[in-house]
Structures are given as structure tokens and as C-alpha cells.
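Is this the right way to post C-alpha cells for a design question? Let me know if I should format differently. Anyway, here goes:
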């Protein structure tokens, strides 16, 4: 119970009012603003690539040679898998931008601690601190074995 209250306090403390002219802005807030700009640019690029890819995606075609047919199917499947991954990344980008707007960006979803700014710069769509992510990966490895 105390841990939940602690997390609530940290989330509320992370909610900061919109930056207004004349107010001092912390180094972390400046970096988060820069991260937001990068996320918006990345989102725009992904959407542009998706539109272009939809226009270029080869349709179902029949080749007289089975080898050519198999190769075309593999290429099509690969392109569709890439689009699926990009769609997931786009969702994560949208979530990160929303968290920035709400003032909850950079707070670990698992422990409620602030995520190191260097980690956020390296992986802006992350929602866990390095310790919690490492622990999660260890647990996943143990369940796979």
C-alpha cells in the first residue's frame, strides 16, 4: 500500500505545468522537450514511409517459375513484417508523446522511479528504468528455458 502511494506521489510530482515564458526550465525538462521534437519527427517519417510503402507493396502475382514465385512471396512477407513492426513502434511513439503532454514521461511503469535521462535519449519509447527492464528480461529468459 505504501509503495502505491509513493508511486502516486512521484507521478504527481512529475506532472509539471506547461512551460511558460520567463520561467526557469530544468535541464531534464529541456531534454524531454528535445526528445518530444525527435519523436514527432520520427512519427512523421514513419507515416510518410508507410504511405510510400503501401503504394509500392507488390500484390499477389503468379510467376511461371516456382523459384520466382517463392522469392516474391518471401519478399512480400518480409515487407509486411516490417510494416507490422513499424506500426508497433508508431504506437509506442504516440504513447510517449502523450506521456510527455500529460507530464508523466520518464517515470518507470513498474517501480515509479524516474528513468535516467540518458536512457530516455537513447530509447525515448521506453517505459521502464534499466533495472526493471533488466529484471523483466531475466524473468523472460527463465520462463523460456
Amino acid at each position: 500500500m505504501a509503495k502505491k502511494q509513493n508511486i502516486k506521489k512521484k507521478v504527481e510530482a512529475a506532472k509539471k505545468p506547461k512551460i511558460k515564458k520567463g520561467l526557469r526550465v530544468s535541464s531534464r525538462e529541456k531534454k524531454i522537450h528535445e526528445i518530444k521534437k525527435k519523436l514527432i519527427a520520427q512519427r512523421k517519417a514513419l507515416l510518410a514511409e508507410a504511405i510510400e510503402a503501401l503504394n509500392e507493396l507488390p500484390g499477389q502475382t503468379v510467376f511461371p517459375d516456382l523459384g520466382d514465385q517463392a522469392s516474391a512471396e518471401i519478399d512480400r512477407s518480409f515487407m509486411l513484417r516490417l510494416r507490422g513492426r513499424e506500426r508497433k513502434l508508431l504506437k509506442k511513439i504516440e504513447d510517449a508523446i502523450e506521456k510527455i503532454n500529460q507530464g508523466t514521461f520518464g517515470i518507470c511503469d513498474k517501480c515509479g522511479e524516474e528513468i535516467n535521462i540518458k536512457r530516455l535519449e537513447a530509447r525515448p519509447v521506453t517505459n521502464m528504468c534499466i533495472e526493471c527492464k533488466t529484471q523483466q528480461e531475466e524473468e523472460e529468459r527463465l520462463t523460456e528455458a
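Format looks fine. Someone answered above. Worth noting: The chain is about 70% helix and 0% strand. Residues 1-20 have pLDDT under 50 and may be disordered.
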